[in-house]
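Why should sequence recovery work at all? Because a backbone constrains its sequence more than one might expect. Tight turns favour small or flexible residues, buried strands favour hydrophobic ones, and helices have their own preferences. The token representation captures these environments compactly. In the example below, the structure is given first.
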């Protein structure tokens, strides 16, 4: 913003202190008009002062041209206008200079002082001039006419430009303030959009990790049991056809269960993807990031709640499936069984499931102990297996090394503690404690 309070853009397009060429041309035009006016008024001033007319004209031209710097130094313009007022010249310069001063960023006390000086100067000059003109023409008027006309003229040349300048300056400052607030709001919206996009990306990453864990739990456990039953089926197919038929039925059941769980998870993914696309329709540009974060959060919540996870009441069935696959499993439950939050029960179930899957993979034939303890404010589980028999052969199942990591992530996300490692007897133990709420 310039000293006259005029707004300007980021790039200056005018010479010197002007922001625009149009403003420079306008001020040059005003200065030329003011200089011509003061030059013409300098002729009677020179005659009255007894100086050469040329000197009066040059003085008027120089004084009037000061209006050229009204945007840069409005105080100087007003002071010159006040100084030449006794010479009865510079009325245009006084009006325009006072307007420029009132519209500038100069403190109000300075504006008031200079406006008062100009008012008094014009008042005195008009009073003296009118008295001289009346005396010269030998006219008689009432005593109040001269003071009234002087005061009216002085106020007419001072008050309108002063009030107009104050109004224009206040309006420009208001517009500048509103523009700054709009820019600040736009920056804040952009920052919120960036943060929302980061949150949406984080939510997508968390959802991908959660889906990967679910896929791992479903596929690894079911397929491991299917491989174990298939190996048993191959071993007894000729010796015990009845047991082979039973094992084949178990393999079929495991496959159907795995397919059912996979279809449910894929259905959630498709529903979540469609919902995310619907959220992005007709969203304003400034709110894209916020809407994306909200959509991602809702998608995560819907995905977690759309498919009911396993619960603790199904652990008996889970142990029974491992026992049917030939594993010797001992299940013990301590404490009064009660219901927990769905995520707590699902996590506890997955920990036991993954631990049993690891026994099938790495310790086939080893006796396994599953212990579940219901405590006052937490639930604890432990899966421990003995060393596998020397004659036992490996199931040949691949391992990506993500099972223990996934279990620890699940338990830690609920504020619990997860510990795993080999036992002194040569087996392996998995323990977890999860807060009840």
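From this structural description, the recovered sequence reads:
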């Amino acid at each position: 913003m310039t000293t006259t309070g005029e707004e300007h853009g980021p790039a200056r397009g005018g010479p010197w202190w002007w922001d625009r060429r149009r403003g420079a041309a306008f001020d040059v035009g005003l200065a030329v008009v003011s200089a011509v006016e003061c030059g013409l008024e300098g002729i009677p001033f020179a005659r009255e002062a007894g100086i050469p007319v040329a000197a009066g004209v040059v003085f008027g031209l120089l004084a009037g041209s000061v209006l050229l710097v009204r945007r840069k130094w409005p105080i100087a313009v007003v002071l010159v206008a006040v100084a030449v007022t006794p010479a009865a010249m510079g009325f245009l310069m006084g009006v325009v200079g006072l307007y420029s001063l009132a519209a500038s960023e100069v403190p109000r006390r300075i504006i008031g002082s200079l406006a008062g000086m100009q008012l008094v100067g014009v008042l005195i000059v008009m009073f003296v001039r009118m008295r001289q003109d009346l005396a010269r023409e030998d006219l008689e008027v009432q005593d109040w006419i001269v003071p009234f006309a002087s005061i009216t003229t002085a106020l007419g040349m001072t008050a309108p430009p002063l009030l107009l300048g104050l109004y224009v300056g206040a309006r420009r400052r208001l517009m500048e303030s509103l523009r700054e607030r709009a820019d600040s709001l736009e920056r804040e919206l952009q920052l919120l959009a960036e943060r929302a996009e980061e949150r949406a990306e984080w939510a997508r990453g968390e959802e991908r990790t959660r889906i990967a864990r679910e896929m791992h739990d479903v596929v690894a456990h079911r397929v491991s049991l299917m491989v174990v039953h298939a190996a048993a089926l191959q071993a007894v197919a000729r010796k015990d056809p009845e047991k082979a038929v039973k094992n084949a039925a178990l393999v079929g059941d495991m496959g159907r269960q795995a397919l059912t769980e996979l279809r449910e998870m894929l259905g959630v993914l498709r529903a979540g993807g469609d919902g995310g696309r619907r959220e992005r329709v007709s969203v304003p540009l400034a709110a894209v990031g916020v809407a994306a974060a909200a959509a991602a959060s809702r998608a995560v919540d819907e995905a977690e709640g759309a498919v009911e996870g396993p619960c603790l009441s199904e652990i008996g069935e889970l142990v029974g499936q491992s026992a049917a696959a030939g594993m010797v499993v001992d299940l013990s439950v301590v404490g009064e069984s009660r219901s927990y939050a769905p995520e707590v029960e699902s996590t506890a179930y997955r920990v036991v499931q993954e631990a049993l899957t690891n026994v099938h993979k790495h310790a086939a034939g080893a006796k396994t102990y599953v212990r579940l303890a219901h405590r006052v404010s937490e639930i604890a589980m432990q899966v421990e297996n003995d060393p596998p028999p020397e004659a036992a052969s490996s199931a040949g199942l691949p391992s990506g090394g993500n099972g223990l990591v996934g279990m620890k992530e699940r338990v830690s996300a609920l504020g619990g503690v997860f510990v795993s490692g080999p036992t002194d007897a040569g087996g392996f133990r998995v323990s977890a404690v999860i807060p009840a709420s």
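A few observations help interpret the result. The mean pLDDT is 79.
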